[in-house]
Amino acid sequence: MNFSEYIKLYKPKINDAIKLIYDKKIKSVKNAFLKAYYSELREYFLAGGKKIRPLLCIATYNAFKKKKDDKIVFPSVGTEFLHNASLIHDDIIDKDNFRRGKPAFHYRFRQYHEIHDLKKIPAEDFGNSIGIIGGDSAFFLGLEAYLYNNFKQDLNVNAIQYYEEVFKELCEGVLIEIDMVNQQNLKIHDYIEMISLKTGALIEKSILIGANYARVDDKYKTYLSTYGKNLGIIFQISDDILGTFGDEKITGKPVNGDIREGKKTCLLIEAYNTLNDKKRAQLNKLIKMPEITDIEVKEVKELFLEADVINSCKNLADTYYQEAKMSIDKLKGVINQSEVEFFEDLLNFVIKRKF
Amino acid sequence: MNFSEYIKLYKPKINDAIKLIYDKKIKSVKNAFLKAYYSELREYFLAGGKKIRPLLCIATYNAFKKKKDDKIVFPSVGTEFLHNASLIHDDIIDKDNFRRGKPAFHYRFRQYHEIHDLKKIPAEDFGNSIGIIGGDSAFFLGLEAYLYNNFKQDLNVNAIQYYEEVFKELCEGVLIEIDMVNQQNLKIHDYIEMISLKTGALIEKSILIGANYARVDDKYKTYLSTYGKNLGIIFQISDDILGTFGDEKITGKPVNGDIREGKKTCLLIEAYNTLNDKKRAQLNKLIKMPEITDIEVKEVKELFLEADVINSCKNLADTYYQEAKMSIDKLKGVINQSEVEFFEDLLNFVIKRKF
Fold first, then answer.
1. Which of A157, A171, A182 is nearest residue B157 as measured by Cβ atoms?
2. Does domain A3-352 have CATH number 1.10.600.10?
3. ipTM of this complex prediction, to 2 decimal places
4. pLDDT digits (tens, 9 = 90+) for B34-52
5. CA pair distance A31, A134, nearest whole angstrom
6. Which residues of B302-322 are buried (b: 16+ CB within 10 A; e: fewer)?
7. For chain B, which end, N or C, has fewer CB atoms within 10 Å of the first or last residue's CB respectively?
8. With a CB-CB cutoff of 8 Å, which residues 94-133 of chain B face chain A?
C-alpha cells in the first residue's frame, strides 16, 4: 500500500481514536468553559495535518504482522497528541497566530476573549494562558493512548518509557534551537544534532512504539530507528528550504520567518560555511539585527543563493535519504511487502514535498 | 511521628531522589545550555517547599506496612514534579516573578538573558519561552518516578493512571479559576469544586499513589481520599486568607494580588453573599476594574471585614477539618499509630498555618 492509500484507510480511524479521547473528556465535565475548551482542542487536533506519526506507528505494527488488526490504532495516536501539544506551545513561543491556515490554539482563545468581551485580563494574556494549559492537557491526554487499550501492561509501560524519553528529546531540541540563535561558528553537524532531537526523535519513537506493540526483535529496531530519524531529518531540511524559498500559497505558512528570527537553519549554516569572509560578515550583520526590513531579508536571500545553499541542503538531505533507503532494504523479506511500499513511498514523498 | 519528625527524616531522602533524576539528565547532555537548564531546574526544585506531597505518599505507604522500607521514596517524588511544573507555568500565567522569596523559574532565564546580553529575542520572551519548556520538562520527568523503580509493573501503571488523572484535574481547576474571574453569582459550592480540582486533587493523589504501592484495600482508600481532598481544601482556604490578610514577612508572598487580579477567593464569594445590595454593588464595581489603586484595595478589604469573611472562611475550613479528622479516626487500629500521629499533626498544622 502506498502512502496515500494508507492515509485513506487509516486517517478516519485515527481521527475516531482522537475523538474518543476528547469526547470522554467533554462528556465528563459539566462546566461550560471546560466543555468549550476540550471541544476547541478536539477541533484543533482534527483540523488538519497528515497524521504521519500515527500512520508510521500503524504501518510498523502491520509490517511485522501476518494478520493485521486494528488494536494498534488507539495507541498510535499518543505521539500525535505529543506532536500537537508541542505545536501549541511552539506557537506561543514563536508568536505565530496561525497554523495550517487556521488560528493557532492560543489565538482561538484570544478570539474567544474578544467575542465574550472579557475585561479583567488582557486578550493576549488570556490566549497565552489558555494556550499554555492547552499544551499541558494535550501532552497528558496522549498518555491515555497507552493507559487504556487492549495490549498487555508490559508493552504499555515500554510505550510510556518511549513517550517520556521522546518528550525529553523534543524539549532538548527546542532548547538547543533557542540557544543556537546566539551561537557562532556552528557546523552542519550541530544543526543535524538539533533537528534529530527536535524532529527526528518523535518520528523515530512513533515507529518504535509500533514495533514495541508488535513485539519486534531488537535486531530489526536499529533499521527502523535509522529510517525514522533520517525521515525526520529530511523532513526538517525541506521544511527549512520551504520556510525561506517555498510558495506561501502551497505551504500555507508565511515565508521568511526563520530569517527574521535569526534561526540557525541549514540554509544559514551552509551559507556561513561557504561564503568568503567579507560576505560572511555581511550576512552575520544582517542576521544579528533585532529588527530586519524586507529589503534586508531580500539581501539575506541573495547571499543564500550566491552560496548555492538550496543545492547543498538538497545534497545533505540526499545522504540521509540514501541511508534511510538502505535501512528499508535490510528489512525486505522480513517485513510485509505492502509496508515496504509504504515506507519507500513516504520517504520519496518527504524528499520531494512542496508543502 | 509528628509532621516535623517526618520532615527531618524524609526530606533529605526526597531531595536525594529529586537530585538523582536531575543528575542523570545533567550527565546525559553535552550541550552547555542544556546543562545550565537542568541545573537551574534542579536548584528550583530543591530551593524550598515543605515537600508535603512526597511526605504524604511516604506516610501513607508506611501507615499500612508492618516493616517500613525506603523503596517508596523514589516514586513519592512524582507528584512533587507535577506540583513544581504547574507552579512554573502558573508563575508565567500570573506574571509572578518571585516564588518562595526566590526568582520564579522563568524569571531566572530572564536574568540569564540579561547576564549573557542576548540581543535577538527580548528578555521577557526568552524567559517565558524557557519557562514554558521548563514546566513541560518537569511534568514529564515526574513520570520517571514511576517508570524506573523497584515496584511491579502493574503498580507503576496504576500510579501513572493517577498521575494522568490528577494532571487533568489540576488543569481543569486552573481553567475554572481563570473562567470564574468573569462569572457572576458564584456560590461557595462553586469555589469548593474549583479548589478541590486545583489543590485538593494532587494532595489526594499523592496519598492514593502511596496506598497503591502498599496495595491498600479499596475500602480504606475512601477515607484516605477524603482526608487528602479536605486537607487540600483547608490549605487553599487558608492560602486565600493569608493572600489578603497575611503578613508578607512571614508568608514571603506579596499580599493583595488576589484582589488586584479579581480572583474569586472564598473571601470574595463570602463577602458577595453576605453584604447588602448596596455594598455588594460597591464591591462588584471595585473588583471588576481592570486596574485598581491602593486606596481601592483598602476599600475592598474594609468591605471584607464588614462582612466578617475571615470568620466565615475559618468556619468553612473547620467543616472540612472535622470531616478529615473523622476519616483518620476510621483508620485508627488499621494503620500504624505513628502515621495516625503524622496525619493528625499535619491537619492541625495546615489549619493553623501562618505561612
1. A157
2. yes
3. 0.92
4. 999 999 999 999 987 889 9
5. 16
6. ebbeebebeebbeebbeebbe
7. C
8. 95, 116, 118-121, 125-126, 128-130, 132-133
